[in-house]
Amino acid sequence: MLDASTTTAPRVAGPAEPADDDLELLLLIRHFELSLLDLFSAGKLNGTTHTCLGQEHVPVALGPLLGEGDYVFSNHRGHGHYLARFRDPEGLLAEIMGRQGAVCDGVGGSQHILRGRYLSTGVQGESLPVAVGTGLHLKRHEPGSLALVHIGDGTWGEGSVYEALNMAQLWRVPVVVAVENNGIAQSTPAALQMAGSIEGRVTGMGIAYRRIESCDVHDIRTAVEADVEQVRATNRPLVLEFSVPRVGPHSKGDDTRTQEELADARSRDWYEVYGRRFPEGFARADARLRERVSQVTRDVDARPLSEWRDACLAPSA
Asked: What's the predicted TM-score (pTM) here?
């Protein structure tokens, strides 16, 4: 059983060959995100969009550990979280483009999506307090279920994070916090905006904590499976800190990092790591999922606007 001491999932010499299902989901998310950047450049998206390029392995690894009764709370960089939960690129892309068949009728856009027990928001720090309240409900009325909430390293500048964690620990709430630490909050490196560490802040409250360096989906899932089950059994919160690269920009083209920093991020990208280690099988799957996403994009782009989005964009009388 994890306690508040530091526990780090061991590094492995290289990733194991991923299961076909895991690899297809990883590549589905990757090409979906790349297609969004292309659509934005072509002027086909309204508002903004934040991709999870380089971070796709986190929700893919955690997805099979969740049940239908669990909640997932996402953030502004949440397309991968949604796709790992529902595998619905058509509905998500229609939502982002405001087309018919959109999961929220086209009014939620890229960041604000509600589907069943899944909720994403673009408001930094909002998801964790909501997840703790939901977790308290689950503890009282649906024991054995939990709330998983994804946040980034930049969100640790929000006071609501600490208030929520404090309550989760005091009240023994079944919440798993997946911290996708890409080391840069929009354009500010973590070293310039965070004193101390996430580990120190979490363990100071007595909360169980594990840091994961690997991008190997199987390795991650194996390392944290027992920890997640402990959350269900004991109603004690858990923080999993994932060291991940942000391969893409903050949103669209706003990236202030040096070429050396970008090269380092790419070298740690699961896409590059798997591609180098398993070139033939990876290339076949990559081509197949690239074409699938291209077909989804063509189909959704040809749809009319959703009725709600059409009404929102119509000129007033």
From this structure: 0.89
